[in-house]
């Protein structure tokens, strides 16, 4: 009798979750968890609780449930379930900004469960790795894992996974100042998200993508489109109780990010506040906020954010007539550029200083799109059909064909 009641609670919880009523869904799952005795059912309910806590931004609770899942999987002696529990922990640590811990857990997920290369678990684990490497500003590995995820999503016809890949690529190209390619990827993500029905649990991606498109439109000077999309996303977010995207003010956004422990979100909000302070010509306030951004980006080991922050501080101290301090930040800019290898291997110019299209090669090094033509030139003046083409100028990867041939 008790088990039947528990399963009814679980079924109601699933229905409420699918209708995005996360608070009541959580109540039902908690009631089911207290009554269930069969380990397989307990694991499934804990998995749904992890999903609900992720939606609510309660990432420490996700860790707590995932650790319970790990203990249940040990009792069942199931490597597959152990891998799923490990993946849930990895996702939580990613949102908390513990990128290296999350990467280690993702690798453990592959080693423990040994999932097939083409499987949902493998696809979402590669996506998590891509997000973590983006957080660590490891451009090459970020593109590599997004590429693998995209391959898995296409084979499995997983629209949600494909949508999230395009969202990840959108943020990556935006960080590299390739706003046109970023917009293209976000538009593709938006087209996929629009296919989800209103009650679909992943319909939220449409309003999240709308916010990102608004940011890019504002960068491209299309302010009318940016305002329109931002207002629409705000209305939808408030209507669906999506607190993580319903930001009426930067201050309230920062308070929500602190409450949820989402340090990457805190970083984004503080960066926006710094830009607003600079736009209002409150230079001292801009310096103070940028120093906070720099501290947080160092904690997260996000070198791209550190680079952007040092550039802003370099300019700010010039405005404040402190050339010595400005030179210090300029030195850090050059050092970070060397660490990140953000140089085009063909023309040797810096990538990310201005809005310009870039292309990742099959080896995942990036060059300017305008420099692709130089890789088509043969390495000799002979007209032999087997002559070698120029390899990737960064890694000198030896191959018999032009490195851009796979992309084209």
TrEMBL record:
SMART domains tied to this protein: RING, TPR
Cited InterPro entries: RAPsyn, Rapsyn_myristoylation/link_N, TPR-like_helical_dom_sf, TPR_rpt, Znf_RING, Znf_RING/FYVE/PHD
Keywords noted in UniProt: Metal-binding, Zinc, Zinc-finger
All copies of domain RING-type, residue ranges: 344-396
Gene3D superfamilies: Tetratricopeptide repeat domain (1.25.40.10), Zinc/RING finger domain, C3HC4 (zinc finger) (3.30.40.10)
Superkingdom, taxonomy of origin: Eukaryota
Protein name listed in UniProt: RAPSN-like protein
Organism: Mya arenaria (Soft-shell clam)
